[in-house]
Specification:
By secondary structure, the protein is an all-beta fold. It contains no helices and nine strands.
């Protein structure tokens, strides 16, 4: 078992094209020996957003703090702390911070 505090993990800017005001913490990944899933924390500044994109794998998201929108092909879906989001493989998605505080969410993806 490995335990660490999330704030002890280095925060890095997301440099993917289309990202604006987004940082990431790799909370649990290959450095911890995770064989199947990775856990990441995203921090989106007010007015910021992740890229609008798709990929071949699913992921699960838990909104920890703040508010915003989970964007799909059907438009913006309001999200707030405590919400859970499932994104299917191949589904178009983006997260926007529409509030005045940081939007923080955990994202779990397959290795």
């Amino acid at each position: 078992m490995k335990i660490k505090h999330s704030e002890s993990v280095e925060t890095k800017p997301v440099e993917m094209a289309g990202a604006d005001g987004v940082q990431i913490r790799l909370l649990i990944h290959e450095a911890e020996g995770a064989p199947t899933f990775y856990m990441r924390e995203f921090i989106v500044a007010p007015g910021g957003h992740t890229p609008l994109h798709t990929h071949d794998w699913e992921h699960e998201v838990f909104i920890v703090a703040g508010s915003g929108a989970a964007v799909s092909k059907d438009g913006d879906n309001p999200i707030t702390a405590g919400d859970c989001v499932y994104i299917a493989p191949g589904e178009l998605h983006q997260f926007k911070n529409t509030g005045d505080q940081e939007l923080k969410f955990l994202c779990l993806v397959p290795k």
